[in-house]
């Protein structure tokens, strides 16, 4: 079974930075990995995705240019560097493992079969 554990969330002032990490196990390293977030009172939304070798990377327009997704396949970790944070970035952030090797732009959540428990990010 896929196991994903996020860390690195916290509270930060607007304009600040945070780095989220996700430790993954029980999945094929060849699969697409991604980050989603769920703002308070809203539905979960996709943030970014990265393919196995990092040759394909997609970002939601709301975070493009501010967030950077990366992965270390040897360590089986996924990261999300978040800079220039805004109050609207406040959300619970989830890492996810897709069921396919290819990443989609604005993917459906059904394309992801493994989910972490989430980590809270609060920007004030």
Can you tell me about this structure?
The chain has no helices and 11 strands. A hairpin with a 6-residue loop joins strand 5 and strand 6 (57-59). Strands 2, 4, 5, 6, 9, 10 and 11 form a 7-stranded mixed sheet that branches. With 124 residues, it is an all-beta fold. The radius of gyration is 13 Å and the shape is globular. The mean pLDDT is 95. It has strands at residues 3-7, 10-12, 18-25, 33-38, 45-50, 57-59, 67-72, 77-82, 91-98, 112-115, 119-123. The protein is 0% helix and 48% strand.
- Counting DSSP E segments of at least 2 residues, the number of strands comes to 11
What's the rounded overall pLDDT mean? 95
- Assess the beta-strand content as a share of residues: over 45%
Unreliable parts: none
